[in-house]
Protein: Regulatory protein, luxR family
Amino acid sequence: MSAADLLEDALDRVADFDAVGAIALLEAEPHAASDPRVLALLSYARFTTADFAGCRRDAVDALAASTDSDRTTRLLVLGAAGLALGSDRSSGSELEGCFTEADALVDDGGDLEPTLAWLVGYLLVEGAVVNVLIHAARRFADAFADEIAATPSRLYRTLVDGVLARLLLNEGRVAEAEAAALAMFERAGSGPTALYAEAVQCLVAGNRAEQGATRTLARRVRQAIPEPTGAFQTTCYLLVGYGLAALADDHGAAALARSASGNDFSGLSVQDRALAIELLVSSAFLDRDIVESERLIGFIAADVDRRVPGPAILRMQCKLELLHGRPADALALARTATTRALADGRMLEAGIGEILATRALIAMSDRTQAVRELAALAEQAVRGGHTAATRSAARELKAIGRRLAPVAGSGWDGLSPREREVALLSAEGNSTAEIASVLQLSSRTVDAHVTRVLAAFGIVSRRQLPSRLPATLPLTAVPVPTAPLTPRQRDLTELVADGLSNDEIATALGISRKTVEKHLSAVFHAWGVRSRVAVARIVLANRAR
Structure:
């Protein structure tokens, strides 16, 4: 078998989640102990089986064997070394510096062997994500975007898609991660690849606060893997656990983490170990179990100064301080965890730290600052599509009897069902007293709802609602009008849908305001409606047909 065929065959097995078969194939190669490419692939395959000692040994040997190698080989080895580094971040590791060297080689430019270029890019991105070096992962993903897009096999592409979706999620770009996860699922085949795609989708759906989809996907994965064995199945369990955690299902997430981790967490990479323990600590925190929280943190507390798990450990210690009734100490830990996560580009984790900080502020009776920070977090989360973070902020506020203000520009989607009723009635010209009578509310409550409606649309007056509201309303179940209109009336309805006032329509059509009102009244009669909002909805719906 040629060297190229050997590597391709081994990769096929790894991508089909048969890493044990890949290792046996590679170890049978006569020059396995000295060929840096074979050693790099062996290291990668061992990582996927959680044989971390063997993974590190092969990575170190590959680095030594590739000092004078070509650019493709050296970058391949550095990518494998990065993954191995994620299994042990102890000081003085021979693998330290692999990403710095890879960065320099990428900056220097140069061609790569076309058949391996995608694998080089994938391993560098995967290794950086495993080490939660998000800035480095993004640089590699951008530098190798074309090569990654040309991944030659559907099996390989599932692995590549998965790491890119996780990278986007780490960066807080949840809406983009959702699109990547969907593309991954559509490209995945059946069996293990489809299961991995569902686990990634579950993680993303949880952060989008899609409860039904998250729980359905979680159920599928658990039914397919009753008890996880091996690194692949463990990874699927942890991804699903993180998805449930985003929905604040801490006990459900902990059950998955417990099944995936075993008794001593030794089968997990450094970062996965920290995050799995954090899921378990969150469950213990919910039960106010100080003893269990301290026991769990003890597994990893010594790692707090390592770059990878530091923020997670600080968040766990923050929860412990809250349980002990020391909110000032908890606040300091939450702030440090957030700062470190932001410095690493870990936007999703930064949001978790910010929520913990507001809990500490509330415990310190500084509700004003807590509300301010929760509002800022929600606004940032909306921009990134991180719906779960917005709902987390809303839950924290609800616990102290406050509500999250609608994010400016969120429009119809940012309103509650009752606020939508108020918005429609207000846009149709009803006064506060009239709305209060229809909805059986007090005038004060109506005014409060109107204030939130105006905030959601980013406007300052009710008079602006008729021009802003129609374009954001759902267009489902809007009837097609059968009564014919004159050409001038059709022109008028188009301008109404564009949000123009009567005076603006009069100017645009070269007619008087009184004539506009006459035409509008005729349209109301012909279409059986009573407001310009209803006219606009019909026009917009039929434009889309």
Remarks:
- The first helix runs from residue 3 to 15.
- The mean pLDDT is 87.
- The CA atoms of residues 247 and 483 lie 48 Å apart.
- The radius of gyration is 28 Å.
